[in-house]
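Contributing new records

If you add data, match the layout below exactly. Sequence lines come first and carry their own label; structure lines follow with theirs. Keep one chain per record. Anything else will be rejected by the validation script.
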Amino acid sequence: MFPDWIIDVLFWVAVVFLIGVYVSWRATRLDRLHVRVETARAALDAALVRRAAVALELAASHLLDPATSLVLATAAHEARTADSDNREFAESDLSRALRAVVDQPDFAVTLEARGNGQAVLEELGAAAAKVAYARRFYNDAVSAARIARRKFLIRVLPLAGRAPVPGFFEIDDDPPKL
């Protein structure tokens, strides 16, 4: 019915079309993974800022002694103002300062005696938990993007474009024991 050369041409057109669809699908998937990384980073940044704000609120609440308040306020301020190179260190310092504050002897008894301390502690616990979750989601997104970028097709055809390889965010985010 059709000459053999037409069938051959149609076959190769179909093969090229399917390869194009597959390459397009891989590029779109990689783009979605990069968007997921950016969204997770924004959520992580928001959680970190919220934790620092709660730490500053605790430091300014007059529930702590002046030296502890100063240490906590300094760590929170450094975490909020750190540049991208020093952010992980500053956030880890804030985590350690929060744990040091909460681990003080008679900390819970002192807060209960002063009234509104329990509300601040609950808010601090929630903010610390959100940081841990947000960091986990961000690092999972980074891992998925890095795995996708290592695929042979992504490397051979520069499907990642000029997008930088996302980096993990590693901090000491163990929440204080409230």
